[in-house]
Amino acid sequence: MTEPQNPTEHPRAIRSFVLRQGHMTPAQQRAIDTLWPQYGLDFQNEPIDLAQTFARPNPKVLEIGFGMGTATAEIARRLPDTDFLAADVHGPGVGNLLKLVAEQNLENIRVMRHDAVEIVENMLADGSLDGIHIFFPDPWHKKRHHKRRLIQAPFVAKLLPKLKSGGYIHLATDWEEYAVQMLEVLRGFAGLENTAADYAPTPAYRPETKFEARGKRLGHGVWDIVFRKR
Ligand SMILES: C[S@@+](CC[C@H](N)C(=O)[O-])C[C@H]1O[C@@H](n2cnc3c(N)ncnc32)[C@H](O)[C@@H]1O
């Protein structure tokens, strides 16, 4: 994307990520080169038919920010009847997840390397999702960076129409103050109901993620939040 000439005229969107180069291993690069045609999905500016993408009508879950994808692959293995559209912007992670998908013959994952905010805004039809997973989104600890946090009311307002009635949104974080914000944001939507009094027990399908393990080593707690669309 080219930078606008006059940033005040076309203000740059505040993004929830900073693209770092990151080291791509030869195996990850090879996975991108060879497996993208089969398991990768390019961004497009109009809604896609997910049933066609996965060649079956089964439940569809969007995962935003899969990181290295180890939890994504494990969840897809545990839930073979559900299809997962997994999005991240981080190249090495994309290569890693493609590699896991091929190694484990996971036909129920498609990988996207694109800003999930734009995917939600442009590429998903209303009522097309049965679930949304956002596990350990970047906590953006510093107050002046809070504006970069993914879980804020304007983004949730864009996410909700994409869910079917009865569909769920499952968030997890290791940063307590962000957990409080997540709960507050989701509670602000009358169209959503909490499946628990506040924080939910970790659902059986969610294994420990890489970022979660790191948080635990640092002594952080873990909070899962699961709301359902009425
Ligand atoms: C802290 S990591 C957590 C990764 C993984 N879920 C885990 O628990 O190990 C957050 C991830 O979200 C990704 N991310 C942040 N904003 C994103 C966006 N708008 N679209 C897609 N991915 C995003 C980052 O690239 C990063 O890989």
UniProtKB/TrEMBL annotation:
Catalyzes the formation of N(7)-methylguanine at position 46 (m7G46) in tRNA. This is tRNA (guanine-N(7)-)-methyltransferase. Transmembrane segments: none annotated. It holds the Pfam family Methyltransf_4. PROSITE patterns: SAM_MT_TRMB (PS51625). It comes from Kingella potus. InterPro entries: SAM-dependent_MTases_sf, tRNA_(Gua-N-7)_MeTrfase_Trmb, tRNA_methyltr_TrmB_bact. S-adenosyl-L-methionine binds at residues 63, 88, 115, 138. The keyword Methyltransferase applies. Keywords: Methyltransferase, S-adenosyl-L-methionine, Transferase, tRNA processing. One of its GO terms (molecular function) is tRNA (guanine(46)-N7)-methyltransferase activity.
